[in-house]
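Risk register update: the risk of archive-format incompatibility is retired. Evidence:
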Amino acid sequence: MRARTLTSAIALGLAPVFATAGEDAFSLPLPEFKTDSEAEQPADAASEGESGETPGAREPAADAAGALTSPKQPASQGGAAPERVVWDGTPIRVILPVQGERIVRLPVDQARIGIPPALNDRLRVLSREGVLYLQPTEAFEAKRTLVEEPHTGRSFMLDVEAREDGPGRELIIHDEAQDAAADAEPAEAHPSGGKPPIVDYVTLTRYAAQNLYAPERLRPAHPGIRSVGVDDASIALVRGARIEAEPIAAWSGGGYHITAVRLTNQTFEPVVLDPRSLRGDWLAATFQHARLQGAGHEADTTAVYLISDRPFEESFWGRR
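Archived output:
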């Protein structure tokens, strides 16, 4: 048996869903495991900034070692100071420049935005790690949109409109309650005699995803989670489907074990993944993508994060 630990990673704020994600009212999926074609999609709309690059249009690119690197932090467009507003439950007015782009930073790790049908052909949106990149193609009056953080349910309302002379400077939205809570955390972050940080399903899943796909400088540290070995031999994890499953990394913390398993479609037909079809005894299963394309397609591979109260081998081989 060979043990294999984590060696590469991408910066992403995973939004765990402990079931197969279906179609919803939101126009954009979570920006996870971006393919090259998805990364190139917004590249034809240039930023109004002095750099000539479109913030957010450049997706992570693989280096020679196969690790993915994250794009540079976008600067305020035109060098202007960013606009800052505090979310207090009142819809926030967001004015966009026609044929330009405006960046909106939200106080969340991940965001989904529901676009009104009237704006489907007039507004292009990219959502990545709590940042929205908004590009209107024509002017339109204010339309209310809902932005949601998937794994917590927190939501914000934006009144979005586009004008020919709309501002292009960055908009940063603060959450007053969240900022106050963050100010109170340092005393608990380095407990000398206090309680250790809580490790739950969400914490474990996010930690595993970030460690698996983030560059080394962005890998999180958590005093309550440690890496453990796992046998990387292929297993028949998915019932009723020809999907190769390879455990690639595992961790333990808070009395739980989490294992990242790479899933690769071995057929030429798309497969919809269902956590109920997984062999083993799991407390939670989170798919990075709920659908695999046919073999040979750039989206024929994804990952599943499995949480159990025992080491992976015991949870899988103990009950099938």
